[in-house]
UniProtKB/TrEMBL annotation:
It comes from the Bacteria. SUPFAM superfamilies: Acylphosphatase/BLUF domain-like (SSF54975). Residues 3-94 form the BLUF domain. This is BLUF domain-containing protein. InterPro entries: Acylphosphatase-like_dom_sf (IPR036046), BLUF_domain (IPR007024). Pfam families: BLUF.
Amino acid sequence: MFLTRLIYASTITEHFNPSSLEEIIEKAALNNEKNNVTGMLCFNRKYFLQCIEGSRTDVNKTYNKILNDKRHTEIILLDYREINAREFSNWSMGYVPTSRLSAQINLKFSGSSEFSPYKISGASAYMMMLELKNSLPTV
Ligand SMILES: Cc1cc2nc3c(=O)[nH]c(=O)nc-3n(C[C@H](O)[C@H](O)[C@H](O)COP(=O)(O)O)c2cc1C
């Protein structure tokens, strides 16, 4: 079964409440572990940037569920490709909080010091997450 990687950006909606983030992370960890899906989720209180990797079927099934989630909107696919190996195999869903999305890292991968996932290329988003994974604990 082909390995694939998918990267998208999205924006929270009025359905996103204070407990939503924890619920999303818990559910993602549970489901992804079951489905051998791995990846990383970045969040800055307004935008999400997520990378999902796994078998083509599992990545597509997961993305379809994510697309129908009312807690976010403006879901834009940044990259989708076949890959030879996972890069986030230590995380069923690694979480990167705002505090780690520093001005320095945003400037390195985008035209702005703000976290603006809609304004970066899929390749830059991927490179940024590769750099962020070095600062994350494994689970
Ligand atoms: C930003 C965001 C990221 C999400 N990431 C995942 C994920 O990686 N895996 C997953 O199973 N669900 C994820 N979800 C939750 C799904 O949208 C959906 O609620 C969940 O998969 C439903 O699981 P269930 O079919 O077991 O009820 C995410 C939701 C949001 C808003």
